[in-house]
Amino acid sequence: MDILMDDIPYNLHTMVEIIGMENFLKLSKLYGGSNVYIPVYHRVTMGERNREIARIYNGKNINQLRIKYGMTEMQLKKLVENNIKNR
What we know:
Helix content: 55-70%
Distance between the termini: 47 Å
């Protein structure tokens, strides 16, 4: 198949550059014509961040974690507590 960038709507050129033409065509086959929601980066990476916090929390480093992640002590304690329950 010889699809050219000129065949793709201009507003999607950046996506093609990021994921490549082959993957773009796969997306087009699966989702073409529909509205697809792509979450913001922060939401996608939040689970990984939370697991990391729970992994490195030792009961004494709450202040360091609070500063590093820009969270309150209460938020951190709740996050760690929820991660322990979900193990």
